[in-house]
What we know:
Chain A is mainly β.
Amino acid sequence: NAGVTQTPKFQVLKTGQSMTLQCAQDMNHEYMSWYRQDPGMGLRLIHYSVGAGITDQGEVPNGYNVSRSTTEDFPLRLLSAAPSQTSVYFCASSHQGLAFFGQGTRLTVV
Amino acid sequence: AQTVTQSQPEMSVQEAETVTLSCTYDTSESDYYLFWYKQPPSRQMILVIRQEAYKQQNATENRFSVNFQKAAKSFSLKISDSQLGDAAMYFCAYRSAVEYGNKLVFGAGTILRVKS
C-alpha cells in the first residue's frame, strides 16, 4: 500500500546543476501536483496534471519543468538549480477532491 | 485568485485544554471546499478535517471540529482535549469546486505547541 512515493527524501545540489525529483503513485489517480513549502508561505503550487499528457502551470512554475507520460509518474525537473529553489517539495495525487501527499523532498541548493 | 490567511504563526495549549486556530479566506466563488491539514515533524501531510461550502453544518472528526462562517469567510479549527501528539504545524487550505485540476491554496501555517 505505497500511495504516493517521492524520491529522494533529501538532496543537496550546487548552483547550476540539474536534477529530477521523482513522484509515483499506485492509486490510478488522474490528478497529480507539485508543491513547494517555504517558511511563512505555506505550500505553493508549482505545476499540476489532470491526466497523462496534460500538464499546466501553478502559482510558481519558473525554473521547473514537468511531464506526465504515464498515469503513475509525475517527475519534476530543475534544469539549472538556484539557491532560491531551496525548499521542501511535495508531490500529491488527488481523487474525488481528496489529496494524498508524498513524504516530501528536502532540497538544498548551495 | 483565492487567498488563505492564517494570522497566528504560533499557538500554545496546555494538555487536555481546548485551542482554536484561525483561518480566513478570500474568494468570489460560492462553491468550494476547505481543509485543515496537520504536518508533524515527520513532514507527512495529514488531512484533519474537510468542509464543503454548500453544507451549513460544521464538520466534526472526533476531537476536531470547525466553525465555518461562510459570509465572514472564516474557517477556524477547534481542538478539544489537546494531546501531546497534536503538536504540529497546521495548514488551512482552499479548493475550488469549479476550477480545473483539484488545486489547493494554502495558508502560511500555524505551529501548535502542546505543554504537558
